[in-house]
Design a protein that fits this description.
Elements (H helix, E strand, L loop, with lengths): L1 H20 L3 H7 L3 H6 L2 H14 E5 L52 E4 L5 E5 L7
Antiparallel strand pairs: 1-3, 2-3
């Protein structure tokens, strides 16, 4: 009986460690100490966030002035720092390290592609609708 208990405990610890490792560092940055509680224990939220980061959000170059309509500027979007109050805006935009989850961007659209312009750059952030992945 003791062996079974120890085996189950070992398996649980391994699964917990694997779950911790599979959480993207950008998610960890936003949720801070609450990552496991908010995301690690919610496979639906974790899948949603991973889908956003890997499939739905794209950083593209588009010289300013080429857009048909004026896109909201990233500087106008609030930070999502509820779980990590020490989080700050990026001092300089780097498309390779940019974390879109830090900002209160509209991620839940089912029908519209949304675009935001990064201030003083030629970059835009494109968020494709959820339905585009189905």
């Amino acid at each position: 009986m003791k062996r079974i208990f120890l085996s189950l405990l070992f398996i649980a610890i391994c699964l917990f460690a694997k779950a911790q490792q599979s959480i993207d560092p950008r998610i960890q940055e936003v949720y801070g100490d609450k990552t496991q509680e908010m995301v690690g224990n919610s496979p639906v939220l974790l899948n949603f966030l991973n889908d956003l980061l890997t499939k739905r959000i794209k950083i593209e170059e588009m010289p300013a002035g080429n857009e048909e309509k004026k896109f909201p500027m990233l500087s106008q979007i609030a930070l999502l720092n509820k779980y990590n109050p020490s989080m700050v805006r990026d001092a300089e935009f780097n498309p390779q390290t940019f974390n879109p989850l830090k900002y209160n961007l509209e991620f839940s659209s089912n029908s519209n592609t949304l675009v935001y312009r990064v201030d003083n750059t030629n970059y835009i952030i494109v968020i494709h609708p959820q339905s585009a992945n189905k």
